[in-house]
Design a protein that fits this description.
By secondary structure, the protein is mainly α. It folds into two domains: 110 residues, no CATH class; 57 residues, no CATH class. The protein is built from nine helices and two strands; from the N terminus they run βαβαααααααα. The protein has a two-stranded parallel ribbon. Helix 1 links the parallel strand 1 and strand 2. The chain is elongated, with a radius of gyration of 25 Å. 13% of the residues are buried.
């Protein structure tokens, strides 16, 4: 049984994360048996790294650093090539990048050493879904005060956004439930109501 992969942003949240050494062999074995692996989002890491490099380097595709950026987060060899290229730069050109490497270098080196090409490496797809949910709820967020109903609404959104929504099948199920109940709805149609004056969800 494989472990669970959790990705964290390399931006605002990632800035608060401290570099970690490569997990001990016993920790890696526990992960393979079903533990949780935390990895930084490669897209955010790449963006933050570029923010610490001069425009003169990024705009020159022939520059050793610019050439190394593409594969830096994909393999140990690619990462070592980037680090070597940065360290070979004059002090004035590499000062910001070196500070970033001191903060994240050990953790990235450990991360690329165990990179699975078939696994997700970016939080982008999740962020895209969350943006769509935020768009649909919009400024109505303050009107959702019931946790159970909100959970059910999000579940319905997930079904629709994943392309599994089928209005006809849903209507058939409702008719079936009414038929089995003798054509009458359940006596308690609001089983999830909160006690008066108490909200289970506060925006």
């Amino acid at each position: 049984m494989g472990g669970v992969l959790r990705l964290a942003c390399g931006g605002a949240e990632g800035d608060r994360l401290r570099p970690r050494p490569r997990p001990h062999r016993r920790d890696r074995e526990r992960l393979r048996r079903g533990g949780t692996e935390h990895r930084l989002c490669e897209w955010h890491l790449g963006r933050k790294l570029r923010e610490h490099l001069p425009a003169s380097i990024l705009d020159d595709r022939r520059h050793p650093i610019a050439r190394a950026l593409g594969d830096a987060l994909r393999s140990p060899g690619g990462w070592r090539a980037l680090v070597a290229a940065i360290e070979a730069e004059p002090a004035a050109e590499r000062s910001l990048a070196l500070g970033w490497l001191q903060r994240y270098g050990a953790r990235i080196a450990a991360q690329v050493a165990t990179r699975d090409p078939a696994a997700p490496h970016s939080t982008g797809p999740v962020e895209q879904v969350l943006r769509e949910v935020d768009r649909r709820i919009g400024d109505r967020v303050g009107s959702f005060t019931n946790r159970t109903r909100m959970r059910k609404l999000l579940a319905l959104m997930a079904v629709e956004m994943s392309g599994r929504a089928d209005g006809r099948r849903w209507a058939d199920r409702l008719r079936e439930r009414l038929y089995l109940a003798g054509g009458r709805p359940a006596d308690n149609q609001r089983p999830h109501d909160d006690p008066k004056g108490a909200y289970s969800l506060v925006a």
